[in-house]
């Protein structure tokens, strides 16, 4: 009796061990297609063939700066009689900004012209006198001293006339300086002096004007990108766009126009500058933006949503839905990612349907059902 019980117990232990081994083996194996099992619901997308820009990721941070910034200072002192613009106004080159009281400059010009007229008259008289003395000297009727004195008087008056002409020119310039005009097209800043204020030349700053159209965006780039940037710039102009918080509308577009002549030894960065037309005034001096620099463009590249790409023990793969609604685990080689879309360099063709959600429940040859809300979903072409 005891011997029979021992045999039964051994059989039970063996069956349990066998079941445990089978259970462990089943737990380690991937799920396989089973007849009668309900199809797995998934979301899909269609592989699209399009052109994809090659960008520097992440986009560097840059700051906006004016192409030209001019500080307006008076070139003569005096009282501001009129201010001919509003703060923050767009002004054109040559447009009148300030008028300094012109009366002192006008009086100085009148005085200089009077001195010139007087000395001119005296010079003419001295020249006539010298001509007479020269004839008398040639006839030996006057001494050498008298002749030299006459010539010196004429030369002195000629010098006075030259100085008077210079004084007239200077007075005319001072009178012209009483009208302060814009040297560039740009936007005016804050007004520092108002009508009635006395300004001193050239110490007082009246105004700063920044050129807004076009405008620069200056940014740094790691030095490892320099060879590719230089290579691409030899064949074409590199496009750049600026992105910033609360951007309303499309991103401002520009072109890379400057590469600095040296790499910063402390940071390993090189400074670049992009020029933006900025016709709508979206970019503002001092503003910080992200610069999206396009190095090149991949043509006719196959792209899928990035969430379709899975990583397994043998590398990356994508589940492809076949015509019989079963899935195939397709190994792929991926390239760059752009706007949540991944370029598939090898393994897919345009028009194929790939799984974007629900991969965790899938295995090769399993049946799937595409949710109606996303059955015709395509990737968004860049």
Textual characterization of the structure:
It is built from four helices and 23 strands. By secondary structure, the protein is an alpha+beta fold. Strands 1, 17, 18, 19, 22 and 23 form a six-stranded mixed beta sheet that branches. A hairpin with a 5-residue loop joins strand 14 and strand 15.
Brief overview, please?
Helices cover 27% and strands 35% of the residues.
The number of helical elements comes to 4
Computed structural class: alpha+beta
Oligomer: single chain
Principal-axes shape call: elongated
pLDDT below 50 for ≥5 consecutive residues: which ranges?
1-31, 372-382
Number of E-type strands: 23
Q: What is the terminal-to-terminal distance?
A: 81 Å
Approximately how much beta-strand content do the residues carry?
Answer: 35-45%
Task: Profile the largest sheet.
Answer: 6 strands, mixed
Question: Mean pLDDT, as a whole number?
Answer: 86
**Gyration radius, rounded:** 43 Å
Tags for this model:
382 residues, alpha+beta, six-stranded mixed β-sheet, 4 helices, 27% helix, elongated, disordered C terminus
Reconstruct the topology from this structure.
Elements lengths: L1 H27 L11 E7 L1 E8 L5 E6 L2 E4 L5 E6 L6 E2 L4 E5 L2 H36 L5 H34 L1 E3 L4 E3 L9 E2 L7 E4 L4 E8 L3 H8 L5 E5 L9 E11 L5 E8 L11 E18 L4 E3 L2 E7 L5 E5 L1 E6 L2 E6 L6 E5 L10 E3 L12
Parallel strand pairs: 1-23
Antiparallel strand pairs: 1-22, 2-16, 3-12, 3-16, 4-11, 5-7, 5-10, 6-9, 7-8, 9-11, 12-15, 13-14, 13-16, 14-15, 16-21, 17-18, 18-19, 18-22, 20-21
Helix pairs in contact: 2-3
């Amino acid at each position: 009796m005891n011997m029979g019980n021992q045999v039964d117990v051994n059989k039970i232990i063996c069956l349990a061990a066998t079941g445990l081994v089978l259970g462990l083996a089943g737990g380690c194996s991937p799920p396989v297609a089973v007849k009668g099992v309900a199809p797995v619901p998934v979301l899909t997308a269609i592989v699209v063939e399009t052109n994809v820009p090659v960008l520097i990721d992440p986009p560097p941070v840059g700051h906006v700066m004016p192409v030209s910034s001019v500080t307006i200072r008076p070139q003569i002192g005096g009282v501001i009689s009129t201010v001919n613009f509003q703060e923050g106004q767009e002004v054109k080159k040559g447009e009148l900004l300030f008028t300094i009281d012109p009366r002192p400059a006008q009086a100085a010009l009148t005085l200089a012209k009077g001195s010139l007229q007087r000395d001119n008259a005296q010079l003419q008289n001295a020249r006539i006198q010298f001509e007479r003395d020269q004839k008398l000297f040639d006839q030996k009727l006057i001494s050498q001293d008298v002749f030299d004195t006459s010539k010196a008087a004429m030369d002195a008056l000629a010098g006075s006339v030259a100085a008077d002409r210079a004084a007239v020119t200077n007075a005319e310039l001072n009178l012209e300086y009483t009208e302060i005009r814009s040297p560039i097209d740009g936007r005016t800043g804050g007004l520092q002096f108002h009508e009635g204020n006395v300004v001193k030349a050239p110490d007082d700053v009246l105004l700063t004007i920044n050129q807004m159209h076009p405008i620069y965006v200056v940014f740094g780039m790691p030095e490892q990108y320099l060879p590719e940037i230089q290579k691409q710039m030899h064949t074409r102009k590199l496009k750049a766009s600026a992105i910033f918080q609360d951007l309303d509308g499309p991103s401002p577009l520009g072109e890379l126009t400057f590469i600095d002549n040296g790499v910063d030894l402390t940071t390993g960065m090189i400074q670049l500058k992009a020029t933006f037309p900025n016709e709508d005034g979206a970019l503002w001096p001092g503003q910080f933006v992200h610069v999206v620099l396009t190095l090149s463009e991949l043509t006719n590249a196959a792209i899928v949503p990035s969430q379709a790409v899975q990583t397994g023990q043998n590398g990356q793969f994508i589940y492809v839905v076949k015509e019989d609604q079963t899935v195939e685990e397709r190994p792929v080689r991926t390239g760059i990612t752009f706007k949540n879309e991944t370029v598939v360099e090898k393994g897919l063709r345009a028009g194929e349907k790939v799984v974007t959600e629900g991969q965790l429940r899938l295995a090769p040859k399993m049946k799937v059902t595409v949710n109606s809300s996303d059955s015709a979903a395509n990737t968004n072409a860049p």
